[in-house]
């Protein structure tokens, strides 16, 4: 595949669903295109192409622009990648891709398309998405904790144990009960976290799953990031989250880590109260989450 050198006339381009046969072209565009956004998880590209979660604009026999969707959950999905070949006018390219995506999403009964990219490397895309109809859904706030202590260990009746792959079905069930559809983790992400993550712990009582916490380590263990903490709705306010956070702090202290970080939605006041009480403080960093109403 050659990247386009001259200005591309998008009015002559034809949208089509991408397939695994397009993998070489898709990979090259996502790697080399002058304008690109990449938010896919490792190993997701081929399965998503197999599931027809990508759309391309084809001119002649070449793809000049593409967009990849994440795994659909309920009536929502995320924009996970986008690339424009050289010669494609940026605003027109983004608008044309979204125009091609809308009927595909509508036909699949999707109601919302979400986006959250890196403000530094992907900042070029945000104003274009807003011009195309995306609105601000919320901000994701960053918290950190540098003193690795805890106010309490939480209720001793709650047992904490490492998760295993055999727990995947129960973890997925709990995740769907705890979060809005756009925040639910898909089975591939959860499976990889269970199989390869350095820290994935379950909170149980009498064999019943009450909650879980999943964290990653960075910079040779000097930073621990809490990716996910979930407590069954009927168990909230009973110290389950406290028990999980205390265990995580103990894990970070043993590494030994220098700092613990986490992200939470700006509207999640309940979680923020818990984090403040536990010694986490906002860093001032925030990431905008955008939403496009498919039928709006």
UniProtKB/TrEMBL annotation:
Matches recorded under InterPro entries: Acyl_CoA_acyltransferase (IPR016181), GNAT_dom (IPR000182), MshD_Acetyltransferase (IPR050276)
Gene3D superfamilies: 3.40.630.30
Annotated keywords: Transferase
Keyword set includes Mitochondrion: no
Name of the protein this chain belongs to: GNAT family N-acetyltransferase
Pfam families per record: Acetyltransf_1 (PF00583)
Keyword Transferase part of the UniProt annotation: yes
Native organism: Candidatus Viridilinea halotolerans
Gene Ontology MF: a single term: acyltransferase activity, transferring groups other than amino-acyl groups
Domain N-acetyltransferase: 158-296
